[in-house]
Amino acid sequence: MFTYKLGSLFAGIGGIDLGFLKAGVSTAWANEIDTYCAKTFKSNHSNTNLIVGDICNLNAKDLENIDILAGGFPCQPFSIAGYRKGFEDDRGNLFFQIIRLLKEFKNENRLPKVVFLENVKNLYNHNNGETFKLVREELKELGYHVTEKIINTCEYGNIPQNRERLYIVGFLDEDCFNSFKWPTKTPLTNTLDKIVDWDSDVDKKYYYTESTKCYPLLAENIKNNRSIYQFRRVYIRENKSGVCPTLTANMGMGGHNVPLIKDSKERIRKLTPRECLLLQGFPKDFIIPKDLCDSRVYKQAGNSVSVEVIYRIAKEIVRVLNEKC
Questions:
Q1: d(C-alpha 63, C-alpha 6), whole Å
Q2: Which of 37, 75, 154, 176 is catalytic?
Q3: Residue 94 CB: number of other CB atoms within 10 A?
Q4: pLDDT in tens, 140-156
Protein backbone atom coordinates (compact mmCIF):
# COMPACT_ATOMS: atom_id res chain seq x y z
CA MET A 1 0.00 0.00 0.00
CA PHE A 2 1.32 3.43 -0.95
CA THR A 3 1.15 6.06 1.80
CA TYR A 4 2.56 9.06 -0.04
CA LYS A 5 1.96 10.55 -3.48
CA LEU A 6 4.45 12.07 -5.88
CA GLY A 7 4.06 14.79 -8.49
CA SER A 8 6.73 14.32 -11.16
CA LEU A 9 7.89 17.26 -13.30
CA PHE A 10 10.25 16.87 -16.27
CA ALA A 11 9.48 13.19 -15.81
CA GLY A 12 11.48 11.92 -18.79
CA ILE A 13 11.20 8.15 -18.94
CA GLY A 14 10.33 7.87 -15.25
CA GLY A 15 13.64 7.31 -13.47
CA ILE A 16 12.72 9.46 -10.48
CA ASP A 17 9.30 7.82 -10.40
CA LEU A 18 10.88 4.36 -10.32
CA GLY A 19 13.17 5.30 -7.44
CA PHE A 20 10.30 6.68 -5.38
CA LEU A 21 8.04 3.77 -6.32
CA LYS A 22 10.66 1.37 -4.99
CA ALA A 23 10.58 3.36 -1.73
CA GLY A 24 6.80 3.00 -1.53
CA VAL A 25 5.68 6.30 -3.10
CA SER A 26 3.18 6.25 -5.96
CA THR A 27 3.13 8.85 -8.72
CA ALA A 28 -0.19 10.73 -8.71
CA TRP A 29 0.65 12.63 -11.89
CA ALA A 30 3.62 13.36 -14.11
CA ASN A 31 4.46 15.93 -16.76
CA GLU A 32 6.77 15.57 -19.76
CA ILE A 33 6.95 17.63 -22.94
CA ASP A 34 8.97 15.20 -25.08
CA THR A 35 6.59 12.84 -26.88
CA TYR A 36 9.30 10.19 -27.34
CA CYS A 37 10.05 10.16 -23.61
CA ALA A 38 6.32 10.08 -22.97
CA LYS A 39 6.05 6.93 -25.08
CA THR A 40 8.68 5.20 -22.95
CA PHE A 41 7.17 6.52 -19.72
CA LYS A 42 3.70 5.25 -20.60
CA SER A 43 5.09 1.84 -21.53
CA ASN A 44 6.47 1.46 -18.02
CA HIS A 45 4.02 3.51 -15.92
CA SER A 46 0.71 2.68 -17.54
CA ASN A 47 -1.32 3.55 -14.43
CA THR A 48 0.16 7.01 -13.98
CA ASN A 49 -1.66 10.14 -15.13
CA LEU A 50 0.94 11.46 -17.55
CA ILE A 51 0.29 14.98 -18.80
CA VAL A 52 2.15 15.40 -22.08
CA GLY A 53 2.87 19.04 -22.77
CA ASP A 54 4.66 22.20 -21.70
CA ILE A 55 5.03 22.74 -17.95
CA CYS A 56 4.10 26.38 -18.58
CA ASN A 57 0.56 25.20 -19.27
CA LEU A 58 0.18 23.31 -16.00
CA ASN A 59 -2.06 24.77 -13.32
CA ALA A 60 -2.07 23.53 -9.74
CA LYS A 61 -5.87 23.69 -9.54
CA ASP A 62 -6.01 20.89 -12.13
CA LEU A 63 -3.53 18.68 -10.28
CA GLU A 64 -4.20 16.11 -7.57
CA ASN A 65 -2.86 16.69 -4.06
CA ILE A 66 0.66 15.35 -3.54
CA ASP A 67 3.06 14.91 -0.64
CA ILE A 68 6.27 15.22 -2.67
CA LEU A 69 7.04 17.34 -5.72
CA ALA A 70 10.00 16.05 -7.70
CA GLY A 71 11.79 17.15 -10.83
CA GLY A 72 15.09 16.85 -12.63
CA PHE A 73 14.74 20.19 -14.36
CA PRO A 74 16.75 20.70 -17.57
CA CYS A 75 20.45 20.53 -16.79
CA GLN A 76 22.04 21.68 -20.07
CA PRO A 77 22.07 25.39 -19.11
CA PHE A 78 24.32 24.58 -16.14
CA SER A 79 26.35 21.69 -17.57
CA ILE A 80 30.11 21.83 -18.01
CA ALA A 81 29.50 20.16 -21.36
CA GLY A 82 27.13 22.95 -22.44
CA TYR A 83 27.41 26.71 -22.65
CA ARG A 84 26.67 27.23 -18.95
CA LYS A 85 24.24 30.09 -19.48
CA GLY A 86 22.16 29.14 -16.46
CA PHE A 87 18.98 31.15 -16.02
CA GLU A 88 19.84 33.18 -19.14
CA ASP A 89 18.93 30.06 -21.09
CA ASP A 90 15.20 29.46 -21.68
CA ARG A 91 15.60 25.93 -20.32
CA GLY A 92 17.15 27.32 -17.14
CA ASN A 93 14.13 29.52 -16.64
CA LEU A 94 12.00 26.40 -16.33
CA PHE A 95 13.09 26.23 -12.70
CA PHE A 96 10.78 29.17 -12.08
CA GLN A 97 7.88 27.13 -13.44
CA ILE A 98 8.46 24.76 -10.52
CA ILE A 99 8.32 27.74 -8.18
CA ARG A 100 5.18 29.03 -9.90
CA LEU A 101 3.38 25.73 -9.37
CA LEU A 102 4.49 25.57 -5.75
CA LYS A 103 3.15 29.07 -5.18
CA GLU A 104 -0.16 28.03 -6.72
CA PHE A 105 -0.30 25.03 -4.40
CA LYS A 106 0.52 27.31 -1.47
CA ASN A 107 -2.30 29.68 -2.37
CA GLU A 108 -4.65 26.70 -2.14
CA ASN A 109 -3.18 25.60 1.21
CA ARG A 110 -1.93 22.29 -0.16
CA LEU A 111 1.79 22.83 -0.51
CA PRO A 112 3.68 19.51 -0.80
CA LYS A 113 5.51 18.42 2.33
CA VAL A 114 8.70 17.76 0.39
CA VAL A 115 10.46 19.09 -2.68
CA PHE A 116 13.06 16.91 -4.40
CA LEU A 117 15.18 18.28 -7.26
CA GLU A 118 18.08 16.90 -9.30
CA ASN A 119 20.57 18.64 -11.57
CA VAL A 120 24.19 18.62 -12.75
CA LYS A 121 26.77 19.35 -10.08
CA ASN A 122 27.83 22.51 -11.89
CA LEU A 123 24.58 24.17 -10.79
CA TYR A 124 26.08 24.40 -7.30
CA ASN A 125 28.98 26.63 -8.35
CA HIS A 126 27.42 28.25 -11.42
CA ASN A 127 27.95 32.02 -11.57
CA ASN A 128 30.12 31.87 -8.43
CA GLY A 129 27.34 30.21 -6.48
CA GLU A 130 24.78 32.93 -7.18
CA THR A 131 22.52 30.68 -9.26
CA PHE A 132 22.17 28.05 -6.55
CA LYS A 133 21.78 30.76 -3.92
CA LEU A 134 18.72 31.92 -5.85
CA VAL A 135 17.37 28.36 -5.99
CA ARG A 136 17.69 28.07 -2.20
CA GLU A 137 16.14 31.48 -1.59
CA GLU A 138 13.12 30.74 -3.78
CA LEU A 139 12.45 27.48 -1.94
CA LYS A 140 13.00 29.09 1.47
CA GLU A 141 10.53 31.86 0.66
CA LEU A 142 7.92 29.14 0.18
CA GLY A 143 8.71 27.79 3.65
CA TYR A 144 11.07 24.92 2.79
CA HIS A 145 14.12 24.01 4.83
CA VAL A 146 16.68 23.03 2.22
CA THR A 147 19.65 20.69 2.13
CA GLU A 148 21.76 19.61 -0.82
CA LYS A 149 24.51 17.15 -1.68
CA ILE A 150 26.62 16.25 -4.72
CA ILE A 151 26.46 12.48 -5.12
CA ASN A 152 28.38 10.19 -7.47
CA THR A 153 26.37 7.23 -8.77
CA CYS A 154 29.29 4.78 -8.50
CA GLU A 155 29.85 5.72 -4.84
CA TYR A 156 26.27 5.88 -3.60
CA GLY A 157 24.17 3.86 -6.03
CA ASN A 158 26.16 0.64 -6.49
CA ILE A 159 26.08 1.29 -10.24
CA PRO A 160 29.37 1.36 -12.19
CA GLN A 161 28.92 4.80 -13.76
CA ASN A 162 30.89 7.93 -12.87
CA ARG A 163 27.99 10.39 -12.62
CA GLU A 164 28.08 13.32 -10.23
CA ARG A 165 24.77 15.07 -9.72
CA LEU A 166 23.41 17.68 -7.33
CA TYR A 167 20.43 16.56 -5.26
CA ILE A 168 18.25 19.06 -3.40
CA VAL A 169 15.73 18.15 -0.71
CA GLY A 170 13.40 20.60 1.00
CA PHE A 171 11.04 19.90 3.93
CA LEU A 172 8.25 22.19 5.11
CA ASP A 173 8.54 20.75 8.61
CA GLU A 174 11.71 21.72 10.45
CA ASP A 175 11.72 18.55 12.57
CA CYS A 176 11.61 16.50 9.38
CA PHE A 177 14.46 18.54 7.97
CA ASN A 178 16.58 18.02 11.08
CA SER A 179 15.89 14.28 11.04
CA PHE A 180 16.82 13.78 7.37
CA LYS A 181 20.22 12.20 6.67
CA TRP A 182 21.83 11.83 3.29
CA PRO A 183 22.80 8.29 2.23
CA THR A 184 26.33 7.19 3.00
CA LYS A 185 28.75 5.70 0.49
CA THR A 186 28.23 2.05 -0.41
CA PRO A 187 30.68 -0.53 -1.83
CA LEU A 188 30.52 -1.01 -5.60
CA THR A 189 29.67 -4.69 -5.99
CA ASN A 190 27.58 -4.28 -9.13
CA THR A 191 30.53 -4.27 -11.50
CA LEU A 192 30.72 -3.69 -15.25
CA ASP A 193 30.93 -7.45 -15.82
CA LYS A 194 27.39 -7.76 -14.44
CA ILE A 195 26.03 -5.19 -16.88
CA VAL A 196 28.12 -5.22 -20.05
CA ASP A 197 27.98 -8.35 -22.19
CA TRP A 198 31.59 -8.82 -23.27
CA ASP A 199 31.05 -12.29 -24.77
CA SER A 200 27.78 -12.53 -26.69
CA ASP A 201 26.94 -11.25 -30.14
CA VAL A 202 24.76 -8.16 -30.30
CA ASP A 203 23.08 -6.63 -33.33
CA LYS A 204 25.64 -5.94 -36.07
CA LYS A 205 24.69 -2.26 -36.18
CA TYR A 206 26.57 -1.66 -32.92
CA TYR A 207 29.95 -2.87 -34.25
CA TYR A 208 32.65 -0.82 -35.90
CA THR A 209 34.31 -2.52 -38.86
CA GLU A 210 37.28 -1.74 -41.06
CA SER A 211 34.94 0.00 -43.48
CA THR A 212 34.06 2.56 -40.79
CA LYS A 213 35.86 5.86 -41.31
CA CYS A 214 37.07 6.17 -37.73
CA TYR A 215 38.05 2.51 -37.35
CA PRO A 216 41.85 3.04 -37.58
CA LEU A 217 41.68 5.52 -34.70
CA LEU A 218 39.54 3.14 -32.65
CA ALA A 219 41.71 0.09 -33.34
CA GLU A 220 44.86 1.97 -32.41
CA ASN A 221 43.54 3.16 -29.07
CA ILE A 222 41.03 0.58 -27.82
CA LYS A 223 43.20 -2.24 -26.46
CA ASN A 224 41.73 -3.66 -23.26
CA ASN A 225 38.79 -6.06 -23.15
CA ARG A 226 37.42 -4.98 -19.78
CA SER A 227 37.44 -1.20 -20.10
CA ILE A 228 34.97 1.33 -21.43
CA TYR A 229 36.24 4.02 -23.75
CA GLN A 230 34.97 7.43 -24.80
CA PHE A 231 35.20 8.75 -28.34
CA ARG A 232 35.72 12.48 -27.79
CA ARG A 233 35.54 13.94 -31.29
CA VAL A 234 39.21 13.43 -32.27
CA TYR A 235 40.67 11.18 -29.58
CA ILE A 236 39.85 8.10 -27.54
CA ARG A 237 39.96 8.03 -23.75
CA GLU A 238 40.00 4.90 -21.63
CA ASN A 239 38.27 4.89 -18.27
CA LYS A 240 40.71 2.99 -16.06
CA SER A 241 38.69 3.12 -12.86
CA GLY A 242 36.46 0.16 -13.70
CA VAL A 243 33.33 2.22 -14.28
CA CYS A 244 31.57 3.77 -17.24
CA PRO A 245 32.12 7.47 -17.93
CA THR A 246 29.12 9.76 -17.50
CA LEU A 247 26.41 8.86 -19.99
CA THR A 248 25.32 11.92 -21.96
CA ALA A 249 22.28 12.86 -23.99
CA ASN A 250 24.30 13.34 -27.17
CA MET A 251 26.04 9.95 -27.16
CA GLY A 252 23.54 8.51 -29.61
CA MET A 253 23.03 11.62 -31.68
CA GLY A 254 26.28 11.62 -33.65
CA GLY A 255 28.13 13.53 -30.93
CA HIS A 256 31.15 12.73 -28.78
CA ASN A 257 31.29 10.74 -25.52
CA VAL A 258 30.10 7.56 -27.23
CA PRO A 259 30.77 4.63 -24.83
CA LEU A 260 32.80 1.93 -26.60
CA ILE A 261 34.20 -1.47 -25.67
CA LYS A 262 36.34 -4.21 -27.16
CA ASP A 263 34.57 -7.50 -26.52
CA SER A 264 36.10 -10.88 -25.77
CA LYS A 265 36.21 -11.62 -29.52
CA GLU A 266 38.34 -8.51 -30.15
CA ARG A 267 35.46 -6.63 -31.78
CA ILE A 268 34.88 -2.95 -31.13
CA ARG A 269 31.32 -1.85 -30.52
CA LYS A 270 29.12 0.72 -28.85
CA LEU A 271 27.29 -0.06 -25.67
CA THR A 272 23.74 -1.03 -26.56
CA PRO A 273 20.80 1.12 -25.44
CA ARG A 274 19.84 -1.63 -22.98
CA GLU A 275 23.31 -1.61 -21.43
CA CYS A 276 23.11 2.17 -21.06
CA LEU A 277 19.79 1.89 -19.25
CA LEU A 278 21.26 -0.76 -16.96
CA LEU A 279 24.12 1.65 -16.24
CA GLN A 280 21.49 4.07 -14.98
CA GLY A 281 20.00 1.42 -12.71
CA PHE A 282 16.87 0.68 -14.72
CA PRO A 283 15.64 -2.90 -14.29
CA LYS A 284 16.31 -5.54 -16.93
CA ASP A 285 12.61 -5.74 -17.72
CA PHE A 286 12.28 -2.01 -18.35
CA ILE A 287 10.32 -1.68 -21.59
CA ILE A 288 11.95 0.01 -24.58
CA PRO A 289 9.20 0.80 -27.12
CA LYS A 290 9.87 -1.15 -30.31
CA ASP A 291 9.20 1.80 -32.58
CA LEU A 292 11.81 4.05 -30.94
CA CYS A 293 15.09 4.39 -32.85
CA ASP A 294 18.33 3.79 -30.95
CA SER A 295 19.32 7.44 -31.00
CA ARG A 296 16.19 8.32 -29.05
CA VAL A 297 16.83 5.62 -26.44
CA TYR A 298 20.48 6.65 -26.04
CA LYS A 299 19.36 10.22 -25.48
CA GLN A 300 16.74 9.12 -22.96
CA ALA A 301 19.28 7.07 -21.03
CA GLY A 302 21.80 9.91 -21.01
CA ASN A 303 19.21 12.44 -19.86
CA SER A 304 17.83 10.22 -17.14
CA VAL A 305 18.73 9.76 -13.49
CA SER A 306 20.42 6.92 -11.63
CA VAL A 307 17.44 5.05 -10.23
CA GLU A 308 19.21 3.46 -7.25
CA VAL A 309 20.50 6.83 -6.01
CA ILE A 310 16.97 8.21 -6.23
CA TYR A 311 15.69 5.18 -4.30
CA ARG A 312 18.18 5.62 -1.46
CA ILE A 313 17.25 9.28 -1.03
CA ALA A 314 13.52 8.54 -1.42
CA LYS A 315 13.72 5.80 1.21
CA GLU A 316 15.16 8.27 3.70
CA ILE A 317 12.49 10.85 2.85
CA VAL A 318 9.81 8.24 3.49
CA ARG A 319 11.44 7.26 6.80
CA VAL A 320 11.43 10.88 7.91
CA LEU A 321 7.81 11.44 6.89
CA ASN A 322 6.74 8.28 8.71
CA GLU A 323 8.53 9.18 11.93
CA LYS A 324 8.25 12.96 12.10
CA CYS A 325 5.42 14.28 9.94
A1: 11
A2: 75
A3: 20
A4: 999 999 999 999 999 99
